[in-house]
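#structure-requests
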Amino acid sequence: MRLDALARVTGVPGGTATAWWVRNPLVAGLSFLLCLAGCAGIGKGDLNPSTDDSQARKRAMLYLELASTYFAEGKNAFALDAVKQSLAADNTLYEAHNLGGLIYMRMNQPVLAEDGFRKALLVQPQAASVQHNYGWLLCQQGRLREAIALFGAALTNTGYDAPAKTWMTQGVCQAKAGQAAQAEHSLRMASQLEPTNPVVSFNLALHLFRQSDFARAQSVIAPVNASAWANAETLWLGIRLARQRGDEAQVAALGAKLRHQFGQSREVSLLDQEVFND
């Protein structure tokens, strides 16, 4: 899964307020560019929790917790079954509809994913996490105007706890649509909100690199590569930038780090083949 595919950012109901790129195992353990950053949290933080203490709601919540655990582990079939059990107990739980949409996205079933997000918004029209996820789905389908509207709605929600993620995802969508200036604005907004977020930094640096703004791209990605968050993709970008500057010593240093820490990565193969324009 590539960084420029954007991070699939999903949380667990009832989770802490830890930074989203830390608490998400899909981001922390794999790639900076997941589904882009694509998917927001499951949604427990959007609105006030329900005061419904019925047994049906409690059962629905238990199944939702189980489903989110399975989802985080990549067990899509089990997660989907638990979501269905949750909705069977209480089909007004918008978080379950949202998670169902995320599961179907991962299973490459966009029609069912869209149905899940639509149902979630019917229950909670102001759920920012759902607006984010739905927007990313539409972005992947090339429906940029609809996607931007949903991202905008999420960003105007004062209770939303992950605006940087949505700014970043919007920027990636705009870049895909050839809207370079708008993309840079969105990515810089994300960076201003979370300047030490390595996922945001990578996406901004990659965009700047693709716009041939090599000096600014270097200034953004260098701190990431000097940190524990460096991975094969960030190092590869650093190597390509060093080549642009003619800095062979830096190419060698980053290349050695890449081989040592990520010896089986695609980037090592590209380095061996000297394919720097991939």
